[in-house]
Design a protein that fits this description.
The protein is of the alpha/beta class. 22% of the residues lie in helices and 18% in strands. The protein has an 8-stranded mixed beta sheet.
């Protein structure tokens, strides 16, 4: 487990590292830059750089963590990449199912494979499943997510590269929006963000604004119209929301 600076989680767990690019949101991948850096530093898990690599030794790690955490799974890869074997995925999900004291946030761009494999995986209450949607061409990923048995379903609209009008937020429990950051960051327009906030509010879906992004993301901050938006989904399982994240009712509760 590694502590995370990502605003909507607390820690990361990477049983898989490395990936391949499949859509516009991947162009300036932060994980690729970080993997190359860690490879140069000689970190063992990144000996292959950004080539997809499964780490058998990392699968059972959450079972040894005593303090309950909100954990982003595979921040350095995509768990539903075609080269991740189903048997390995099943082991990862079995560990999440057993580690009931933690909440696991899984995020994918491979929403078609997610839907395909969902019947072969356990879906405990503490696994939150999300898809990335960066522009209008990828909104079909939401339908794939909606077809899964995940108890908490969320959208990561980051890096937001264009407007997403009239999203269908039925059965969606959380919306995260963020601009691209780092070198060559592509700009995000304020009206795109406001429209998504308004859509979420109209649908009763918790809204989390992660960042404006840009080359200097700390300078641009994360306030929208004079406030931060840190809403989290209200879980339907036995876990209360983390104390430092305010929960609001979700549209599908």
């Amino acid at each position: 487990m590694a502590k995370s600076s990502i605003e909507w989680t607390e820690a990361t767990w990477n049983p898989v590292t490395g990936c391949t690019k499949i859509s516009a949101g991947c162009k300036n991948c932060y994980a690729e830059r970080m993997a190359r850096r860690l490879q140069g530093m000689g970190v063992p898990n990144y000996r292959n750089g950004f080539e997809l690599t499964v780490h058998e030794h990392a699968v059972d790690l959450p079972l040894s963590w005593r303090k309950p955490q909100v954990v982003f799974v595979n921040s350095m890869s995509d768990l539903f990449h075609r080269d991740v074997p189903l048997a390995f995925l099943q082991r990862v999900f079995a560990v999440m199912q057993a580690a009931t004291e933690h909440r696991f946030q899984v995020l994918t761009k491979r929403a078609d494979r997610l839907q395909e494999l969902a019947p072969s995986l356990p879906w405990p209450d503490n696994v939150w499943m999300g898809v990335s949607v960066e522009d209008d061409r990828q909104r079909h990923r939401i339908d794939h997510l909606r077809a899964t048995p995940a108890v908490v379903k969320f959208l990561s609209l980051e890096p937001l590269l264009g407007p997403l009008p009239e999203l269908d937020l039925h059965a969606i429990d959380w919306v995260i929006v963020g601009g691209e950051s780092g070198p060559r960051a592509r700009p995000m327009q304020p009206e795109w963000v406001r429209d998504l906030r308004d859509q979420a509010e109209a649908s009763g879906v918790p809204f989390f604004f992660k960042q404006w992004g840009g080359v200097w993301k700390k300078r641009t901050g994360r306030e929208l119209d004079g406030r931060t938006w840190d809403q989290m989904p209200r879980e339907r399982g036995r876990h209360p929301a983390p104390a430092h994240f305010p929960a609001v009712p979700s549209a599908s509760s």
